[in-house]
Amino acid sequence: MLMEPVIPLPDLGHRWLEWTRMRFLTDPGAVLVFEHSGLVTGDHVPALMAQAEDHSRSRADPMPLRKRMLQVLVEAVDNLNRHGLGLLGEATFALLVHDRHGYRLATGNAVPCATAMVLSKRVEILNLMAREDIKEQYMKLLTHSGHSANGGAGLGLFTLARKGNLPMVASFDPMGPFTSYFTLELRISGKETLPSSAA
Prior knowledge:
CATH topology: Heat Shock Protein 90
Mean pLDDT: 85
Largest sheet: 5 strands, antiparallel
CATH architecture: 2-Layer Sandwich
Order of helices and strands: HEHHEEHHHEE
Number of domains: 1
Number of helices: 6
CATH class: Alpha Beta
CATH superfamily: Histidine kinase-like ATPase, C-terminal domain
Strand order of the largest sheet: 1-2-3-5-4
Low-confidence stretches: 1-5, 194-199
Shape: globular
């Protein structure tokens, strides 16, 4: 017999969203660009991208910053769409905030426990790598025969590491014996490094 989760799945994603929003908006100059909780479908990707681009244009962001932000965003949100776990996709969230350092993105979704551990370890390794090494490894993976139109080979994280700012922050919390809730946070700015106070 299947047991229902203690917290309904849509509420779980919304709680993660609220908690993250509260942290991201502590900076008095921070502005919410968009937030989404619940299932992410193919229709959501262009809609969220349009919101982010409209905001960026209204702030007269430099073109390199806007381009980097949109590249990170399309990769991160599209991953939520492609890797949702059936009904567990209802627990997904995405949040984008603009502050004095640029943009701050957070995503969260339910994944198999093993996937959460692998992703967290990959983020940890990427955070220790030099940008030149990340770019070189990305180019190698890009030509790898295991890559397909549906992703694979870890290219998504490499794209986020190349276009966003390091370090990225990955964490996961068990939802049961087989599933964990995985969250990823990163910044996108006009600079490759940020002061530690901006984390």
